[in-house]
Protein backbone atom coordinates (compact mmCIF):
# COMPACT_ATOMS: atom_id res chain seq x y z
CA UNK A 1 0.00 0.00 0.00
CA UNK A 2 2.93 2.33 0.71
CA UNK A 3 4.13 1.99 -2.90
CA UNK A 4 0.58 2.32 -4.27
CA UNK A 5 0.09 5.65 -2.44
CA UNK A 6 3.46 6.97 -3.68
CA UNK A 7 2.84 5.84 -7.27
CA UNK A 8 -0.53 7.59 -7.32
CA UNK A 9 0.59 11.07 -6.35
CA UNK A 10 0.52 10.76 -2.55
CA UNK A 11 3.40 10.74 -0.10
CA UNK A 12 4.39 8.40 2.71
CA UNK A 13 7.17 9.41 5.10
CA UNK A 14 10.10 7.05 5.61
CA UNK A 15 9.03 7.02 9.27
CA UNK A 16 5.95 4.92 8.45
CA UNK A 17 6.06 1.14 8.44
CA UNK A 18 3.45 -1.61 8.63
CA UNK A 19 3.39 -3.68 11.81
CA UNK A 20 1.45 -6.49 13.50
CA UNK A 21 1.17 -5.20 17.08
CA UNK A 22 -0.93 -8.09 18.40
CA UNK A 23 -3.41 -10.76 17.36
CA UNK A 24 -6.41 -8.79 18.71
CA UNK A 25 -5.85 -5.51 16.88
CA UNK A 26 -4.46 -7.09 13.68
CA UNK A 27 -2.15 -5.07 11.47
CA UNK A 28 -1.24 -1.45 12.18
CA UNK A 29 1.19 1.35 11.41
CA UNK A 30 4.37 1.98 13.36
CA UNK A 31 7.05 4.67 13.52
CA UNK A 32 10.33 3.27 12.19
CA UNK A 33 12.16 6.37 13.51
CA UNK A 34 11.43 9.23 15.89
CA UNK A 35 8.95 11.83 14.54
CA UNK A 36 8.37 15.43 15.59
CA UNK A 37 4.94 16.74 16.54
CA UNK A 38 3.31 18.23 13.45
CA UNK A 39 5.28 16.05 11.01
CA UNK A 40 3.20 14.90 8.05
CA UNK A 41 3.39 11.12 7.80
CA UNK A 42 1.02 10.37 4.93
CA UNK A 43 -0.68 12.49 2.28
CA UNK A 44 -3.50 10.74 0.43
CA UNK A 45 -4.81 12.51 -2.71
CA UNK A 46 -8.58 12.78 -3.27
CA UNK A 47 -8.62 10.20 -6.09
CA UNK A 48 -7.02 7.60 -3.75
CA UNK A 49 -9.94 7.85 -1.30
CA UNK A 50 -12.64 5.26 -1.86
CA UNK A 51 -16.06 6.86 -1.60
CA UNK A 52 -19.22 7.37 -3.65
CA UNK A 53 -20.46 10.51 -5.36
CA UNK A 54 -20.06 12.14 -8.76
CA UNK A 55 -17.94 9.32 -10.23
CA UNK A 56 -20.38 6.60 -9.08
CA UNK A 57 -22.33 4.90 -11.89
CA UNK A 58 -26.07 5.82 -12.03
CA UNK A 59 -27.03 2.14 -11.44
CA UNK A 60 -24.99 1.93 -8.26
CA UNK A 61 -26.15 5.37 -7.11
CA UNK A 62 -29.81 4.30 -7.46
CA UNK A 63 -29.05 1.34 -5.20
CA UNK A 64 -27.09 3.45 -2.69
CA UNK A 65 -30.04 5.84 -2.46
CA UNK A 66 -32.29 2.98 -1.36
CA UNK A 67 -30.21 2.51 1.82
CA UNK A 68 -31.67 4.43 4.79
CA UNK A 69 -29.31 7.08 6.20
CA UNK A 70 -29.08 5.28 9.56
CA UNK A 71 -27.25 2.47 7.73
CA UNK A 72 -24.78 4.92 6.15
CA UNK A 73 -22.04 2.28 6.29
CA UNK A 74 -23.99 0.10 3.85
CA UNK A 75 -23.98 2.91 1.24
CA UNK A 76 -20.20 2.91 1.22
CA UNK A 77 -20.21 -0.91 1.44
CA UNK A 78 -21.99 -1.05 -1.94
CA UNK A 79 -19.22 1.04 -3.53
CA UNK A 80 -16.60 -1.27 -1.94
CA UNK A 81 -18.46 -4.26 -3.37
CA UNK A 82 -18.49 -2.78 -6.84
CA UNK A 83 -14.72 -2.28 -6.68
CA UNK A 84 -14.37 -5.87 -5.49
CA UNK A 85 -16.48 -7.25 -8.34
CA UNK A 86 -14.39 -5.22 -10.83
CA UNK A 87 -11.36 -7.29 -9.73
CA UNK A 88 -8.12 -6.34 -11.47
CA UNK A 89 -9.96 -3.62 -13.42
CA UNK A 90 -10.47 -1.63 -10.22
CA UNK A 91 -8.17 1.26 -9.37
CA UNK A 92 -8.51 0.11 -5.75
CA UNK A 93 -7.59 -3.56 -6.41
CA UNK A 94 -4.52 -3.47 -4.10
CA UNK A 95 -6.51 -1.87 -1.34
CA UNK A 96 -9.40 -4.35 -1.68
CA UNK A 97 -7.10 -7.37 -1.75
CA UNK A 98 -5.31 -6.14 1.40
CA UNK A 99 -8.50 -5.78 3.42
CA UNK A 100 -9.01 -8.31 6.23
CA UNK A 101 -11.21 -11.27 5.28
CA UNK A 102 -13.37 -10.65 8.37
CA UNK A 103 -13.81 -8.59 11.52
CA UNK A 104 -14.96 -11.43 13.79
CA UNK A 105 -15.49 -9.16 16.81
CA UNK A 106 -18.42 -7.39 15.12
CA UNK A 107 -21.68 -8.85 16.55
CA UNK A 108 -23.09 -9.25 13.03
CA UNK A 109 -20.91 -12.37 12.82
CA UNK A 110 -21.51 -13.81 16.30
CA UNK A 111 -22.66 -17.34 17.04
CA UNK A 112 -26.10 -17.73 18.60
CA UNK A 113 -24.51 -18.32 21.99
CA UNK A 114 -22.64 -15.01 21.84
CA UNK A 115 -25.75 -13.15 20.61
CA UNK A 116 -27.64 -14.62 23.57
CA UNK A 117 -24.92 -13.44 25.95
CA UNK A 118 -25.27 -9.96 24.49
CA UNK A 119 -29.02 -10.01 25.09
CA UNK A 120 -28.36 -9.27 28.76
CA UNK A 121 -27.82 -5.71 27.58
CA UNK A 122 -30.83 -4.99 25.34
CA UNK A 123 -29.84 -1.49 24.13
CA UNK A 124 -27.00 -3.08 22.13
CA UNK A 125 -28.56 -6.43 21.22
CA UNK A 126 -31.58 -4.59 19.77
CA UNK A 127 -29.30 -2.56 17.52
CA UNK A 128 -27.46 -5.71 16.43
CA UNK A 129 -30.75 -7.40 15.55
CA UNK A 130 -32.01 -4.35 13.69
CA UNK A 131 -28.81 -4.18 11.63
CA UNK A 132 -28.93 -7.93 10.88
CA UNK A 133 -32.61 -7.77 9.88
CA UNK A 134 -32.01 -4.85 7.52
CA UNK A 135 -28.94 -6.47 5.99
CA UNK A 136 -30.70 -9.77 5.26
CA UNK A 137 -33.81 -8.08 3.91
CA UNK A 138 -31.73 -5.89 1.59
CA UNK A 139 -29.55 -8.78 0.42
CA UNK A 140 -32.46 -11.16 -0.15
CA UNK A 141 -34.64 -8.46 -1.71
CA UNK A 142 -32.84 -5.70 -3.66
CA UNK A 143 -29.52 -7.50 -4.23
CA UNK A 144 -30.86 -10.97 -5.04
CA UNK A 145 -32.92 -9.53 -7.90
CA UNK A 146 -29.96 -7.86 -9.65
CA UNK A 147 -28.09 -10.64 -11.51
CA UNK A 148 -29.19 -10.74 -15.15
CA UNK A 149 -30.69 -7.26 -15.10
CA UNK A 150 -29.21 -4.46 -17.26
CA UNK A 151 -28.97 -2.15 -14.24
CA UNK A 152 -26.91 -4.64 -12.16
CA UNK A 153 -23.93 -2.63 -10.85
CA UNK A 154 -22.10 -5.84 -9.87
CA UNK A 155 -21.74 -7.32 -13.37
CA UNK A 156 -23.84 -10.41 -12.68
CA UNK A 157 -22.00 -11.45 -9.51
CA UNK A 158 -24.34 -12.49 -6.73
CA UNK A 159 -24.04 -10.46 -3.51
CA UNK A 160 -25.50 -12.41 -0.61
CA UNK A 161 -25.95 -11.47 3.06
CA UNK A 162 -22.45 -12.66 4.00
CA UNK A 163 -20.77 -10.64 1.27
CA UNK A 164 -22.77 -7.53 2.12
CA UNK A 165 -21.96 -8.18 5.82
CA UNK A 166 -18.24 -8.28 5.02
CA UNK A 167 -18.39 -5.00 3.09
CA UNK A 168 -20.45 -3.38 5.83
CA UNK A 169 -17.85 -4.43 8.41
CA UNK A 170 -15.10 -2.98 6.18
CA UNK A 171 -16.86 0.37 5.97
CA UNK A 172 -17.99 0.76 9.59
CA UNK A 173 -14.58 -0.28 10.94
CA UNK A 174 -12.43 1.75 8.51
CA UNK A 175 -14.39 4.73 7.13
CA UNK A 176 -13.56 8.36 7.93
CA UNK A 177 -15.72 11.44 7.65
CA UNK A 178 -13.07 13.83 6.47
CA UNK A 179 -15.36 15.83 4.18
CA UNK A 180 -17.83 16.85 6.89
CA UNK A 181 -20.64 15.10 8.72
CA UNK A 182 -23.13 15.54 5.86
CA UNK A 183 -20.80 14.21 3.16
CA UNK A 184 -20.36 10.51 2.34
CA UNK A 185 -17.78 8.71 4.45
CA UNK A 186 -14.59 7.49 2.71
CA UNK A 187 -12.09 4.65 3.03
CA UNK A 188 -8.57 6.05 3.37
CA UNK A 189 -6.10 3.41 2.14
CA UNK A 190 -3.00 3.06 4.34
CA UNK A 191 -4.22 5.71 6.83
CA UNK A 192 -7.01 3.28 7.80
CA UNK A 193 -4.37 0.88 9.09
CA UNK A 194 -3.94 3.00 12.21
CA UNK A 195 -5.38 1.31 15.25
CA UNK A 196 -7.35 3.13 17.94
CA UNK A 197 -6.33 4.69 21.23
CA UNK A 198 -8.05 7.26 23.46
CA UNK A 199 -4.53 8.71 23.88
CA UNK A 200 -3.53 8.87 20.20
CA UNK A 201 -0.27 10.18 18.76
CA UNK A 202 -1.64 11.00 15.28
CA UNK A 203 -4.49 12.97 13.75
CA UNK A 204 -6.13 13.14 10.33
CA UNK A 205 -6.64 16.54 8.69
CA UNK A 206 -8.08 17.67 5.35
CA UNK A 207 -5.16 18.69 3.11
CA UNK A 208 -4.92 20.56 -0.20
CA UNK A 209 -7.33 19.83 -3.10
CA UNK A 210 -9.36 17.24 -1.23
CA UNK A 211 -6.31 15.30 -0.06
CA UNK A 212 -6.04 13.98 3.50
CA UNK A 213 -3.00 14.14 5.81
CA UNK A 214 -1.98 11.83 8.62
CA UNK A 215 0.03 14.02 11.02
CA UNK A 216 1.96 13.27 14.24
CA UNK A 217 0.07 15.06 17.01
CA UNK A 218 3.00 14.77 19.45
CA UNK A 219 6.64 13.69 19.36
CA UNK A 220 6.73 9.97 18.61
CA UNK A 221 9.56 7.58 19.50
CA UNK A 222 10.89 4.97 17.08
CA UNK A 223 8.86 1.68 17.31
CA UNK A 224 5.78 3.36 18.76
CA UNK A 225 2.52 2.36 17.11
CA UNK A 226 0.89 5.15 15.10
CA UNK A 227 -2.52 5.50 16.72
CA UNK A 228 -5.62 7.54 15.97
CA UNK A 229 -8.63 8.14 18.17
CA UNK A 230 -11.77 6.84 16.44
CA UNK A 231 -13.70 9.24 18.70
CA UNK A 232 -14.89 9.38 22.29
CA UNK A 233 -16.99 6.29 21.74
CA UNK A 234 -18.76 4.02 24.19
CA UNK A 235 -18.20 0.27 24.09
CA UNK A 236 -21.53 -0.34 22.29
CA UNK A 237 -20.35 1.75 19.38
CA UNK A 238 -16.86 0.27 19.37
CA UNK A 239 -18.20 -3.28 19.40
CA UNK A 240 -20.97 -2.74 16.87
CA UNK A 241 -18.85 -0.90 14.30
CA UNK A 242 -15.25 -1.95 15.06
CA UNK A 243 -15.54 -5.33 16.80
CA UNK A 244 -13.53 -4.50 19.92
CA UNK A 245 -14.08 -2.79 23.21
CA UNK A 246 -11.93 -0.90 25.68
CA UNK A 247 -11.90 -2.16 29.28
CA UNK A 248 -12.67 0.70 31.73
CA UNK A 249 -13.57 2.85 28.72
CA UNK A 250 -14.01 6.38 30.16
CA UNK A 251 -16.72 7.10 27.57
CA UNK A 252 -18.74 3.98 28.22
CA UNK A 253 -22.28 4.44 29.50
CA UNK A 254 -25.42 2.51 30.34
CA UNK A 255 -28.51 3.50 28.38
CA UNK A 256 -31.62 3.89 30.53
CA UNK A 257 -35.05 4.87 29.32
CA UNK A 258 -36.51 7.72 31.34
CA UNK A 259 -39.95 7.20 32.68
CA UNK A 260 -41.44 9.11 35.63
CA UNK A 261 -42.97 5.96 37.11
CA UNK A 262 -39.64 4.14 36.80
CA UNK A 263 -37.77 6.94 38.59
CA UNK A 264 -40.43 7.04 41.27
CA UNK A 265 -40.27 3.28 41.74
CA UNK A 266 -36.48 3.48 41.88
CA UNK A 267 -36.84 6.16 44.53
CA UNK A 268 -39.01 3.90 46.67
CA UNK A 269 -36.57 1.02 46.09
CA UNK A 270 -33.62 3.07 47.30
CA UNK A 271 -35.41 3.76 50.56
CA UNK A 272 -36.49 0.19 51.12
CA UNK A 273 -38.87 0.32 54.09
CA UNK A 274 -38.48 3.99 54.86
CA UNK A 275 -41.18 5.38 52.57
CA UNK A 276 -43.03 8.28 54.07
CA UNK A 277 -45.56 10.88 53.15
CA UNK A 278 -42.95 13.10 51.48
CA UNK A 279 -42.37 10.54 48.78
CA UNK A 280 -42.47 11.73 45.20
CA UNK A 281 -45.67 10.44 43.68
CA UNK A 282 -47.35 12.99 41.44
CA UNK A 283 -45.88 15.16 38.72
CA UNK A 284 -46.97 18.77 38.86
CA UNK A 285 -47.14 21.23 35.99
CA UNK A 286 -43.86 22.97 36.81
CA UNK A 287 -42.12 19.59 36.85
CA UNK A 288 -43.73 18.50 33.60
CA UNK A 289 -42.65 21.70 31.87
CA UNK A 290 -39.02 21.41 33.08
CA UNK A 291 -38.96 17.76 31.99
CA UNK A 292 -40.18 18.90 28.57
CA UNK A 293 -37.33 21.43 28.41
CA UNK A 294 -35.01 18.47 28.92
CA UNK A 295 -36.88 16.66 26.17
CA UNK A 296 -37.91 14.02 28.71
CA UNK A 297 -41.65 14.64 28.46
CA UNK A 298 -44.09 15.33 25.65
CA UNK A 299 -44.73 13.71 22.29
CA UNK A 300 -41.27 14.56 20.87
CA UNK A 301 -39.41 13.31 23.93
CA UNK A 302 -36.04 11.61 23.62
CA UNK A 303 -36.14 9.48 26.74
CA UNK A 304 -32.76 7.82 26.46
CA UNK A 305 -30.44 8.71 29.33
CA UNK A 306 -26.80 7.69 29.38
CA UNK A 307 -25.62 6.90 32.91
CA UNK A 308 -21.85 7.04 33.44
CA UNK A 309 -19.58 5.71 36.14
CA UNK A 310 -18.88 8.84 38.18
CA UNK A 311 -21.14 11.49 39.56
CA UNK A 312 -19.61 14.50 37.76
CA UNK A 313 -20.14 12.83 34.40
CA UNK A 314 -23.10 10.65 35.41
CA UNK A 315 -25.75 12.19 33.15
CA UNK A 316 -26.76 15.85 33.43
CA UNK A 317 -30.26 15.03 32.15
CA UNK A 318 -30.76 12.25 34.69
CA UNK A 319 -29.53 14.49 37.50
CA UNK A 320 -31.78 17.34 36.37
CA UNK A 321 -34.76 14.99 36.09
CA UNK A 322 -34.18 13.59 39.58
CA UNK A 323 -33.78 17.08 41.09
CA UNK A 324 -37.00 18.17 39.37
CA UNK A 325 -38.97 15.14 40.53
CA UNK A 326 -37.67 15.57 44.08
CA UNK A 327 -38.62 19.25 44.31
CA UNK A 328 -41.45 19.92 46.72
CA UNK A 329 -42.83 22.90 44.84
CA UNK A 330 -42.15 25.41 42.10
CA UNK A 331 -40.55 27.92 44.46
CA UNK A 332 -37.84 25.43 45.31
CA UNK A 333 -36.61 25.47 41.71
CA UNK A 334 -37.34 29.15 41.06
CA UNK A 335 -34.97 30.84 38.62
CA UNK A 336 -33.30 27.64 37.47
CA UNK A 337 -33.27 26.47 33.91
CA UNK A 338 -33.51 22.81 33.06
CA UNK A 339 -29.88 22.95 31.89
CA UNK A 340 -28.65 24.48 35.14
CA UNK A 341 -30.42 21.72 37.04
CA UNK A 342 -28.13 19.21 35.37
CA UNK A 343 -24.92 20.77 36.73
CA UNK A 344 -23.77 18.48 39.43
CA UNK A 345 -21.93 21.21 41.35
CA UNK A 346 -25.12 23.28 41.57
CA UNK A 347 -27.49 21.40 43.86
CA UNK A 348 -30.91 22.87 44.51
CA UNK A 349 -30.54 22.28 48.23
CA UNK A 350 -28.89 19.65 50.40
CA UNK A 351 -32.29 18.12 51.02
CA UNK A 352 -33.24 17.97 47.38
CA UNK A 353 -29.78 16.74 46.49
CA UNK A 354 -29.89 13.77 48.83
CA UNK A 355 -33.31 12.81 47.54
CA UNK A 356 -32.24 13.18 43.91
CA UNK A 357 -29.02 11.20 44.38
CA UNK A 358 -30.95 8.51 46.21
CA UNK A 359 -33.38 8.37 43.30
CA UNK A 360 -30.53 7.91 40.80
CA UNK A 361 -29.00 5.28 43.08
CA UNK A 362 -32.34 3.47 42.97
CA UNK A 363 -32.29 3.61 39.17
CA UNK A 364 -28.71 2.28 39.04
CA UNK A 365 -29.53 -0.45 41.53
CA UNK A 366 -32.64 -1.42 39.58
CA UNK A 367 -30.68 -1.58 36.30
CA UNK A 368 -27.99 -3.67 37.95
CA UNK A 369 -30.49 -6.07 39.47
CA UNK A 370 -32.17 -6.64 36.10
CA UNK A 371 -29.09 -8.33 34.63
CA UNK A 372 -29.67 -12.09 34.86
CA UNK A 373 -26.02 -12.72 35.79
CA UNK A 374 -24.15 -10.87 38.51
CA UNK A 375 -20.96 -8.94 38.07
CA UNK A 376 -19.12 -11.66 39.99
CA UNK A 377 -20.53 -14.43 37.80
CA UNK A 378 -19.31 -12.61 34.69
CA UNK A 379 -15.85 -12.16 36.19
CA UNK A 380 -15.72 -15.88 36.96
CA UNK A 381 -16.88 -16.74 33.45
CA UNK A 382 -14.04 -14.70 31.96
CA UNK A 383 -11.47 -16.05 34.41
CA UNK A 384 -12.54 -19.66 33.89
CA UNK A 385 -12.27 -21.84 30.81
CA UNK A 386 -11.19 -20.00 27.70
CA UNK A 387 -14.29 -18.67 25.98
CA UNK A 388 -14.65 -18.30 22.21
CA UNK A 389 -13.66 -14.74 21.20
CA UNK A 390 -17.19 -13.58 20.37
CA UNK A 391 -18.65 -14.92 23.63
CA UNK A 392 -15.79 -13.38 25.58
CA UNK A 393 -16.46 -9.97 24.00
CA UNK A 394 -20.19 -10.23 24.75
CA UNK A 395 -19.50 -11.06 28.41
CA UNK A 396 -16.87 -8.30 28.66
CA UNK A 397 -19.37 -5.80 27.30
CA UNK A 398 -22.10 -6.62 29.83
CA UNK A 399 -19.56 -6.87 32.68
CA UNK A 400 -18.33 -3.37 31.82
CA UNK A 401 -21.94 -2.10 32.04
CA UNK A 402 -22.39 -3.69 35.48
CA UNK A 403 -19.12 -2.16 36.66
CA UNK A 404 -20.34 1.27 35.54
CA UNK A 405 -23.51 0.90 37.61
CA UNK A 406 -21.58 -0.42 40.64
CA UNK A 407 -19.06 2.45 40.44
CA UNK A 408 -21.85 4.99 40.06
CA UNK A 409 -23.60 3.56 43.13
CA UNK A 410 -20.33 3.81 45.03
CA UNK A 411 -19.87 7.43 43.96
CA UNK A 412 -23.46 8.30 44.86
CA UNK A 413 -23.09 6.70 48.28
CA UNK A 414 -19.90 8.70 48.96
CA UNK A 415 -21.56 11.93 47.90
CA UNK A 416 -24.64 11.26 50.02
CA UNK A 417 -22.35 10.52 52.95
CA UNK A 418 -20.46 13.77 52.28
CA UNK A 419 -23.73 15.69 52.37
CA UNK A 420 -24.63 13.94 55.60
CA UNK A 421 -21.37 15.10 57.17
CA UNK A 422 -22.10 18.77 56.53
CA UNK A 423 -22.55 20.60 59.85
CA UNK A 424 -25.86 22.03 60.89
CA UNK A 425 -25.47 25.79 60.78
CA UNK A 426 -28.99 26.73 61.54
CA UNK A 427 -32.09 25.13 62.89
CA UNK A 428 -34.43 24.19 60.13
CA UNK A 429 -38.09 23.54 60.24
CA UNK A 430 -39.08 19.98 59.43
CA UNK A 431 -40.91 19.79 56.16
CA UNK A 432 -43.82 17.98 57.69
CA UNK A 433 -44.80 21.36 59.09
CA UNK A 434 -47.09 22.21 56.27
CA UNK A 435 -48.78 25.41 55.28
CA UNK A 436 -52.52 25.74 55.25
CA UNK A 437 -52.44 24.87 51.54
CA UNK A 438 -50.89 21.54 52.36
CA UNK A 439 -47.71 22.49 50.48
CA UNK A 440 -44.37 22.25 52.16
CA UNK A 441 -43.11 25.57 53.42
CA UNK A 442 -39.60 26.14 52.20
CA UNK A 443 -39.24 29.70 53.41
CA UNK A 444 -37.76 28.52 56.69
CA UNK A 445 -35.24 26.30 54.94
CA UNK A 446 -34.49 28.95 52.34
CA UNK A 447 -32.95 26.48 49.93
CA UNK A 448 -33.47 28.52 46.81
CA UNK A 449 -31.46 30.32 44.22
CA UNK A 450 -28.45 29.09 42.34
CA UNK A 451 -26.13 28.31 45.22
CA UNK A 452 -28.43 26.91 47.74
CA UNK A 453 -26.06 25.63 50.27
CA UNK A 454 -26.44 28.75 52.37
CA UNK A 455 -28.15 26.60 54.94
CA UNK A 456 -26.39 23.28 54.92
CA UNK A 457 -28.60 20.71 56.48
CA UNK A 458 -27.49 17.79 58.53
CA UNK A 459 -29.43 14.86 57.25
CA UNK A 460 -28.73 12.82 60.36
CA UNK A 461 -31.50 11.23 62.37
CA UNK A 462 -31.97 14.04 64.84
CA UNK A 463 -32.20 16.98 62.55
CA UNK A 464 -33.57 15.27 59.50
CA UNK A 465 -35.49 18.02 57.77
CA UNK A 466 -37.38 15.73 55.46
CA UNK A 467 -38.68 12.88 57.49
CA UNK A 468 -39.77 12.01 60.92
CA UNK A 469 -37.12 10.60 63.19
CA UNK A 470 -36.61 6.98 62.33
CA UNK A 471 -37.46 7.59 58.68
CA UNK A 472 -34.42 9.64 58.07
CA UNK A 473 -32.26 10.36 55.08
CA UNK A 474 -29.47 8.64 56.92
CA UNK A 475 -31.52 5.50 57.03
CA UNK A 476 -31.95 5.68 53.27
CA UNK A 477 -28.31 6.44 52.77
CA UNK A 478 -27.47 3.27 54.68
CA UNK A 479 -29.79 1.42 52.36
CA UNK A 480 -27.88 2.72 49.34
CA UNK A 481 -24.49 1.97 50.91
CA UNK A 482 -25.72 -1.51 51.78
CA UNK A 483 -26.68 -1.98 48.13
CA UNK A 484 -23.23 -0.88 47.01
CA UNK A 485 -21.51 -3.22 49.42
CA UNK A 486 -23.78 -6.05 48.30
CA UNK A 487 -22.80 -5.42 44.70
CA UNK A 488 -19.05 -5.40 45.14
C1 LIG B 1 -9.22 1.05 10.91
S1 LIG B 1 -8.86 -0.62 11.16
C2 LIG B 1 -7.22 -0.61 11.74
C3 LIG B 1 -6.34 -1.59 11.00
C4 LIG B 1 -6.60 -3.03 11.28
N1 LIG B 1 -6.00 -3.41 12.54
C5 LIG B 1 -6.10 -3.96 10.17
O1 LIG B 1 -5.61 -5.04 10.50
O2 LIG B 1 -6.21 -3.59 9.02
C6 LIG B 1 -9.86 -0.90 12.57
C7 LIG B 1 -9.84 -2.32 13.09
O3 LIG B 1 -8.62 -2.58 13.77
C8 LIG B 1 -8.85 -3.29 14.99
N2 LIG B 1 -8.47 -2.38 16.11
C9 LIG B 1 -8.15 -1.08 16.00
N3 LIG B 1 -7.82 -0.57 17.19
C10 LIG B 1 -7.96 -1.56 18.08
C11 LIG B 1 -7.79 -1.65 19.50
N4 LIG B 1 -7.41 -0.60 20.23
N5 LIG B 1 -8.05 -2.83 20.09
C12 LIG B 1 -8.44 -3.90 19.37
N6 LIG B 1 -8.62 -3.89 18.03
C13 LIG B 1 -8.38 -2.73 17.39
C14 LIG B 1 -10.31 -3.64 15.00
O4 LIG B 1 -10.47 -4.89 14.42
C15 LIG B 1 -10.92 -2.57 14.11
O5 LIG B 1 -12.10 -2.99 13.50
Automatic annotation (TrEMBL):
Residues 12-231 form the SET domain. It holds the Pfam family Rubis-subs-bind. InterPro entries: Rubisco_LSMT_subst-bd, Rubisco_LSMT_subst-bd_sf, SET_dom, SET_dom_sf, SETD3_SETD6_MTase. Keywords: Methyltransferase, S-adenosyl-L-methionine, Transferase. CDD domains: SET_LSMT (cd10527). GO terms for biological process: methylation. GO terms for molecular function: protein-lysine N-methyltransferase activity. Signal peptide: none annotated. This is SET domain-containing protein.
Amino acid sequence: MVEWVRENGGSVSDAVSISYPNAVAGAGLQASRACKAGERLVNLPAHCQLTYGEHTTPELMRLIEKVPQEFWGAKLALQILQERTLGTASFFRHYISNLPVAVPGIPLFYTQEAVKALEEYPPLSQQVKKRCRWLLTFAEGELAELPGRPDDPFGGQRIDGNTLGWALAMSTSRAFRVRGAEQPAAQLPLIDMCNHSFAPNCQVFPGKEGSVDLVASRNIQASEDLLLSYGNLDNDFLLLDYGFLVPSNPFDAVAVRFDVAFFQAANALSKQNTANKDDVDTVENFQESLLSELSLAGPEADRELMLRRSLPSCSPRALAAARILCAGDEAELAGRTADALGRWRDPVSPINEVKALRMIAGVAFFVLSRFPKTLEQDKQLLAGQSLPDDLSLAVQLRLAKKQIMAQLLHDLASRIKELAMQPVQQTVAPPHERSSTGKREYSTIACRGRHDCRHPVNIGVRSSPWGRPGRSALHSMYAVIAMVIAMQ
